[in-house]
Amino acid sequence: MPATPPRTGVWLIGARGSVATTTVLGAAALRAGLAEPTGCVTEQHGFPQEHLPPLGSLVFGGHDITDTPLPKRAAELAASGVFPERFLAPLEDELATADREIQPGHQGATTAPQARTADALSADLTAFRDRHRLGRVVVVNVASTEPPALPRPEHHDLATLRRALRSRPDVLPPSSLYAYAALTAGCPYIDFTPSTGLRLPALDQLAGELRLPYAGSDAKTGETLLQSVLAPMFAMRALRVRAWSGTNLLGGGDGATLADPRAALSKTSSKRSGLGRMLGRPVEGEVHIDCVPSLGEWKTAWDHIAFEGFLGTRMSAQFTWQGCDSALAAPLVLDLVRLVAAAHAAGASGPLGALGFFFKDPVDCADHGLAAQYARLLRFAADPGAIS
């Protein structure tokens, strides 16, 4: 009888948040045969799966600064309509099991050198991997969006960064400290949010030194997903886009976080990062984000596109996207974990540009059009160790 392949760990930063809770419950529902893999790109018919760890082999843990147990958080999400309440009772044990693997996260302000905090976070990861005899652990940042990090000289050189971490408490923003801890524990990393995370030259150097792959950043689940289809259409049809403006209405924790203009700047910058490239020129317009608490876990995005046709005739297009961000994001977390795990198993390292299909502001990926990104993704999935 062939040996059972080692299981894959999934370590979620922000493990008791809406996206993480929906991810854990969704994986359990798929494993129990209670749900279809709707929204899971890697589960589509014909998608290359021979290199991917099975969904049933995923083991969950994570860091969080809150103490609301996953079963209670799942009940809150079900009550708000994120998923049906019928999943709660049969999956309660799996949620409780994952909850026991959640460790206290980085609280922020401290006078201790950050190297000490990074060592503690890294120790949580290695203990999780050893305790469950996992083949590897993929770390995914699904925590709240941070404001953009202020540039520091030590962010650009690994040796300088290491020295600074041993003496100062404020060298890296939290998302980057988690990324540093993940890499030092030998874990590949996924920046699911627009926070700084691993997007610092010194951390890229560390990933290269340790031969670890990483992917990011800021998963596209709604408005930007549509932009990545529509913008190439306008470009291919030689229709001149004059302006593209968007308004986003968000509730829940995400809306509350992005009510802070500093955090919103990270998100709006990410949302606009690829539009000019897809259209071939910069365009007028801005993205606005408003917190509407009564929307709860739901979001609405409205975009207005002004464009010119033949003989300068001015026209416009509008679209409205309404969706539940957690239900849109959770299957992408599962997809990315499987793909990054496959890349790690194949010996790939550094930024995985072939996974740009999933992100608003993808690392090492110049093409933001969805069709081109998907073609590159398929090539990668067929051979994760190849340069794609």
Automatic annotation (TrEMBL):
This is Inositol-3-phosphate synthase. It comes from Streptomyces gamaensis. Pfam families: Inos-1-P_synth, NAD_binding_5. Belongs to the myo-inositol 1-phosphate synthase family. Residues 222-326 form the Myo-inositol-1-phosphate synthase GAPDH-like domain.
